[in-house]
Amino acid sequence: MSVSFHNPDQYMASLRTIIAQGRKRVGLLVGAGAPAGMARADGSRPLIPAVAGLTDLVLKAIEPTYGAQIIGLQNDLENHDIETMLSRIRSLGSVLGTTEVHGLDGGGYRAMADAICVEIGKIVQVRLPGGSTAYGELVSWITGAPRSHAVEIFTTNYDLLFEEALERARAPYFDGFAGAREAFFDPASVSGDQLPSRWTRLWKIHGSLGWKANADGEVVRTGQTDSTHLIFPEHMKYNQTQKAPYAALLDRLRSFLSTEDTLLVSIGFSFADAHITARIDEALAANPAASVFAFQFQKLDKELCAVALASRRSNVSVYARDKAVINGVAAPWRTPGELPTKDWGPIRDSYWAAPPTGGEAEFKLGAIEDFARFFANSQTPQGFEPAPSPEAHPVPAITE
């Protein structure tokens, strides 16, 4: 019986060449797992908590006012994460009227939902630590080479970490808004490519701190850190994304992947957001020349949504700690003992090493800090012309 393996050296050598040259159209898809994997200035983690940590912080903050409702809802629900609870709270707020459930009527649950949203906004209002950061290193990679095409960053996160990193580096970017006092959203510029390629495109597909609805109901960017117009994780998410500016931003994701010879690299994104994954799926089905490389933090058997997409689309590759799905083949990693070149040792160490707690070597680039360092270190030295970029996945899995 034959057994297949994937060699990370082969795929990371290919990726390193692609991202070093600045010729290919490359985008990043950044999810909540990215800031959750970063350290604060004092060394504690996370910079912004993922769903479990977010749930604990939000519920603790609203417990003095809504303690009875929290207990009642947790008794009603199988899952107690903030996404599930907010979905139920929104539902109760929309259907109850003056009838009470767990001591609140419809208006009370609407107020509870607003309180949760306020707390979420407070939690994501963080600044980048001083010195080197993962976001800063990604910006260093973006600005470190002349580019034929602008790098496009698609993120579901509400924080302003990318904005801060780009501004620290004095790197120009466009987020779909134009203006100063109340910047307005310009869908024509989002759908076009008139700006210079050195301008990074930053697409906040679930909204951002500083967005609000003005008196006419239009979403504007204020430049502040308060937030009244985010798509919070709840049951209305799909309906909300059909409205401006969210529809235009999601259309941009689909059009980006509809362009030939395009690579979208994801980090910290679980692919559990059905409305985003559906657009990626549709675009890749129509355009086999586009590729998605998904770098996942957990082991492969925990990354169900990413694996499901890769099983349908051979142009989606999933890189997890212990295994990968590449060209539709799920197989464990195995690194051969011999280095591809005599200088490859430090490069291999950047993506393949034993965890700090000990144990067998594993693939590291599902962690944002290792991922960003790999990208930053891929920059081509001045005066050096790299070899032509190979195909994205020229080598099949090893079979024994």
Give the count of helical stretches. Answer: 14
DSSP summary, beta strand count: 17
Number of domains: 2
What is the makeup of the main sheet? Answer: 9 strands, mixed
Global structural class: alpha/beta
Shape, please? globular
In angstroms, what is the radius of gyration? Answer: 22 Å
On the 0-100 scale, what is the average pLDDT?
86
Biggest sheet: strand arrangement: 4-7-3-2-10-11-12-13-14
Distance between the termini: 8 Å
Which bin fits the share of residues in helices? 25-40%
Kindly estimate the percentage of residues that lie in beta strands according to DSSP.
Answer: 5-15%
Low-confidence stretches: 382-394
Region (Disordered): 379-400
Task: Outline the fold blueprint.
Blueprint: E1 4-5, H1 8-21, E2 25-30, H2 33-36, H3 51-76, H4 82-95, H5 106-123, H6 134-143, E3 152-155, H7 161-168, E4 173-174, E5 177-178, E6 183-185, H8 187-191, E7 200-204, E8 211-213, E9 219-221, H9 237-240, H10 246-257, E10 262-267, H11 274-286, E11 291-295, H12 304-312, E12 316-319, E13 323-326, E14 329-332, H13 345-351, E15 352-353, E16 362-363, H14 368-376, E17 398-399
Helix pairs in contact: 3-4, 3-5, 4-5, 6-14, 10-11
